[in-house]
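User: Sequence for tetraacyldisaccharide 4'-kinase below. Tokens please.
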Amino acid sequence: MEKLRRLVTEIAYTRNPSFTDLSHLQRCIVPLLSIASSLYGTALSMRRRLYRYGLLRSHRLAVPVISVGNLSWGGNGKTPMVGFLARWFDEIRVSPLILTRGYAGGDEVKMLERHHVGTSVKIGVGADRAATAACFFEKQGYVDYHSMCFGRLSHDLEVDASSNSNKIGIVILDDGMQHLSLCRDMEIVMINGVTLWGNNQLIPLGPLREPLSALARADVAVIHHADLVSDKQLKHTEFVMRQVKADLPIYYTRLVPSYFIEVRNCLIKFPLSTILNKVVLCVSAIGSASPFVKGVEKLGPSRVDQLVFSDHHFFQKKDIEKIRERLVKLQDEFGFNPIVVVTEKDYDRDPTVLEALGPYKVLVLCVHLQIMSSTEDTEKDFKEMLKQLLESKFSTRSDGAAIL
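Assistant: Structure tokens for tetraacyldisaccharide 4'-kinase:
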């Protein structure tokens, strides 16, 4: 299954429209993937029509909803953006509720929970986000956003701690762009600046969950991993997006390494210089491994090798043996023990399985999202823009969706 996933991923991200650069096996399965992609596109269009004509129902929550989603699978920075927004609202004493499906073992949920211990951030997990939100509203209560939240957003961090409330003031919908059963007041679309839209085909032939025309629904677009691509490519990406929506606000983000933790003791933080001049093996099972590896390379190791597994893959005994074999090979080549570096998602998926790699040191690279400069836009500008959008959109709600 792992091999098949890798073959399909290579097809999805080939830039050759005739697929001539692929293996014979891959070219043989392209027609099957093409048929499946057409069926998926038809079902996608029918589903959207059912919601448009009211045959399927969208629920409206009593507090503002910010959706963070994407058009393509994996590596778009949704979870870091969700965490960024949750921290901001918590800092200004607006208690956020994150609604997430908890896909594939819940590694992203575990990471969000670990990052927000001791804060007012609440995390609701479940496929029916509206029902999950209703349960939290019943238990925690919710606030009048007009009377409280907009004022706090205006003062940003200048809010007295005594004004903190445990009542929910805003909902952040994780991976929400295709979740049509819940209305949203703002749609943030994340784009992987490195891989973009692959071969521009719908899944499973390509990586697109929706056509690029869906960008017309976005209120804000964010090009993630913008530090890993050229200015020319960024400008071209902006041009393509503005062909769909001319006035679309576009921002850049990157992941900035903060520190390491060790798998055997996550309470101790290690400086980034820990891997300076060391031999490193990057092991990852995430949507886009390339930005992770490039980020590690910037920290100054003498050699970086990598083992890549499919997104959300659970490491098995055979995987640990494969990793160990690569480590032994690196040790024989360079004469000293290499260091394994994994992502936070890989750690949170199963913290104990990586301990089996002892005596080799296994470090977890902890990162944070940073808004990059695009023209003169900064993090402060980004937050101000979000505040203004929330004020205008929430105050002019006019649809007939049921309010929970």
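The chain has three domains: 2-52, 59-248+373-403, 256-369.
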